Amino acid sequence: xxxGFPTEALHTHLEKGNTLTVLVKKDRSVRGTLSLIDKHMNLxxxxxxxxxxxxxxxxxxxxxxxxxxxxxxxxxxLFEGSL
Length: 83
Known about the structure:
Pfam family, one: LSM
CATH topology: SH3 type barrels
Radius of gyration: 16 Å
Number of strands: 7
Organism: Nematocida ausubeli (strain ATCC PRA-371 / ERTm2) (Nematode killer fungus)
Domain Sm: 8-76
Shape: elongated
Low-confidence stretches: 76-83
Number of domains: 1
Helix content: under 10%
CATH class: Mainly Beta
Strand content: over 45%
Structural class: mainly beta
Mean pLDDT: 69
Protein name: Sm domain-containing protein
Largest sheet: 5 strands, antiparallel
CATH architecture: Roll
């Protein structure tokens, strides 16, 4: 039986070792393997990779180049607070 609480629903659907993609902001996401989750929805990800993209903009007639950056985070990545 599922309740309406997001943490309980998250615990029932996710297991240790699942791969997650967490959207942090509009242009930033982190993908990693779930290691731990607690009642406050803090996630502990292993082998996390952060991806940032920069949207092109028009400024003074010059177009900024769109670039995607990926940065490997060795070890573990800890998120605190709500997602």
